[in-house]
Amino acid sequence: MIFAALAAYLFLRDREQTPQATPSVSATPSATPTPDRRTVSTDPLEPRLDTTVANTSYKLTPEGWAADPDAVAAGAREAFTGTYSDGTTDVAVTAAAFDTVQGQDAYSEQLAGKLESGGAALQGEGSVYANNTGHYWYFVQADGKSTTIVWRTDDGVVLSLTGPADAVQAVYRNMLI
C-alpha cells in the first residue's frame, strides 16, 4: 500500500498541469452545454506510434507493432499492441484509434472500469495536457507491483501502458503521439 501511494504521488507530482481557472459567474445561465472541441485525427495510427520514447532508453522491441483485434472488435478503427523495453524492463502498450470522440470516450471508460472491477486500485485520474484536454486513469494492479495507465488523447486515440510504476510513468511522460 505504501508503494502504491508513493507511486501515485511521484506520478502526479511530475505531470505538467495548469490549475483550473475559476469559472466566472454569469447573470443569465445558459441552457446550451459547452461544445466538445475535440476533433478526431484521421491520420493512420501506426506511423504516429514511435519506435523510441523521447528522453528515455525505451525502444520498441523487435516484434514491432501488431494488430489488436480486441480493440477493433470494441469499435476502434485500427489498433496495435507492442512493447517498449530498455533491455531490462518492459512496458506493454496498446493504442487504438477511433472515428468518433464518443467511441474513444466509451472505450477508455470501459478499459478503466474493467481494471477496477478486476481488482486494480485507482490511484489518480485527471487531464493529460496543460490545456486540460485528454484524460488519464492510473491504476496499481492487484499484485501491488504492476501499474496501468489508460490514456485518452485529445484526438481520438486511447492508449494503455502496463508495467512497473517507474517504467510506465517514464513512457507516459515522454511518449509522443
CATH topology: Protein Transport Mog1p, Chain A
Terminal-residue CA separation: 32 Å
List low-pLDDT spans.
1-30
Count of the separate structural domains? 1
Structural class: alpha+beta
CATH-scheme architecture: 3-Layer(aba) Sandwich
Fraction of helical residues = 25-40%
Annotation field: number of helices? 4
Instruction: Calculate the mean pLDDT score and round it.
Output: 86
Under CATH at level 1, the class stands as Alpha Beta
Radius of gyration: 17 Å
Please specify the SSE layout and strand pairing.
Blueprint (H helix, E strand, L loop, with lengths): L1 H13 L44 E2 L5 E2 L1 H5 L4 E8 L4 E8 L3 H17 L3 E6 L8 E6 L5 E7 L4 E8 H10 L3
Antiparallel strand pairs: 1-3, 2-3, 3-4, 4-8, 5-6, 6-7, 7-8
Description:
The chain is an alpha+beta fold and 177 residues long. The protein has a single domain, classed as Protein Transport Mog1p, Chain A (3-Layer(aba) Sandwich), CATH 3.40.1000. The chain has four helices and eight strands. Strands 1, 2, 3, 4, 5, 6, 7 and 8 form an eight-stranded antiparallel β-sheet that branches. A hairpin with an 8-residue loop joins strand 5 and strand 6. It is globular, with a radius of gyration of 17 Å.
Keywords, please?
globular, single chain, Protein Transport Mog1p, Chain A, disordered N terminus, 4 helices, alpha+beta, 8-stranded antiparallel sheet, 8 strands, 177 residues
Give a quick summary of the entry.
Residues 18-33 have a biased composition (Polar residues). Residues 17-47 are annotated as: Disordered. With 177 residues, the chain is α+β, with helices and mostly antiparallel strands.
